[in-house]
Amino acid sequence: MQLSKFTDYSLRVLIYTAARRPDKVSITELAEAYDISRNHLVKVVNELANLGYLRTSRGRGGGILLGHAAEDIIIGDVVEAVEPGFDMAECFSLGTNHCRLTPVCRLKGIMIEAKTAFLRELSRHTLADVVEHPQAIIDALKLEPLASD
After folding, report:
1. The model's pTM
2. Which of 26, 27, 55, 59 has the most CB atoms within 10 Å of its CB?
3. What is the CATH number of the domain that holds 18?
4. Does the residue 148 lie in any domain?
5. Alpha carbon distance 87, 6 (integer Å)
6. 118: containing domain
């Protein structure tokens, strides 16, 4: 299984924002830190803001902040909110399923159990768990020290 780039970028944005708190961050900063298209990140940040995971403000003094404490952001919830579906096989989609085994196949049930276990494990962890050592993240991304230091 592979998460979509959108989900990957969403998690990276949250990690970066949590590591940089309490400072505000910008989309340009995020794009440079991760070498990701600014246009992709605009969509990601907008979605995360719509879901309440981020707070954004425009203009002078604007930027991006976490919408909740990192301890309250559950990784499994984020993945479920932004991942565009877990259709792991053709049979998961009623509209496009043409597999002749569907009426007798047990594989779909096994995959559903695996997906449930995957999300359950992700839900055991918060953003704070992921960003337990923010300085290590800042160092790995070769970022400037926090303005608040």
Report:
1. 0.87
2. 27
3. 1.10.10.10
4. no
5. 16
6. 5-140
